Hints:
Elements: E1 6-15, E2 18-28, E3 33-37, H1 44-52, E4 59-64, H2 72-75, E5 79-82, H3 94-105, H4 110-119, H5 124-127, H6 137-149, E6 155-159, H7 167-183, E7 187-192, H8 195-198, E8 204-209, E9 212-218, H9 219-225, H10 233-249
Amino acid sequence: MGEAALAVKGLTKRYSGRAVLDRVDLTLEENRVYALLGEPGSGKTTLLRCVGGLCRPDEGEISVLGNLPRDLTAARREVGMLIDQPAYCADLTVLNNMRLQARIIGGVDKKRIASLMKAMGITPRQTGRRSAGGCPPSVRLSLAVALAFLGAPRLLILDEPYSGMDGDTAELLKTLLEREMSEHPMTALISGQFFAELYPVATDFIIMDRGRVLSQMTKREVEARLPAGISKSGEYEAFYRALAKEVGAGS
């Protein structure tokens, strides 16, 4: 086992005296895709915001790509993020958003920009000369995902990317994840509310509730519990609810 892509120890975050994160311990290995699951208010986004440096925890430590807390600013240059909501310049075109971010990151050529736009199904027919803000929400979401991938990050963080994403675009994201992980070392942490959306892409599952991590399981461990013959989204969600209840009762 190599160095951890992400290590979190005793992470606590309070708002108005309430613990949104409650002594969270978590370790993510390199070259894995982690599904971060939990109901709204479970602490998923707050955890991702702390890891991404968008808010400061009250207690605990974060290590990114083996870097100690004092070196996190430099380490986060190798992190691609989509957290809270799609981040882009609404007045710029989709292409110019990609070019601007490439300039900020440095070392990104035109071929990579074109490759990522194609991978996420962003075509000139969809965007034309319109500003990103004038594009359909689905295009803006695809742009935000492409921006997160742009710098070939070693740690990729996507906060509920499947919310508002159709099945075809979800398949494009799955294919892009597989491609990127085959071409360079990358660990992905992807949050969501629905097990059925994350199951096809994940190698590992993290279940959160009320600011705590209830369980961390590999896909093999989950598959060992999965009933034979299920195929519908509703069946996967029923399985997940039972699993979350089981691990919650044992926590």
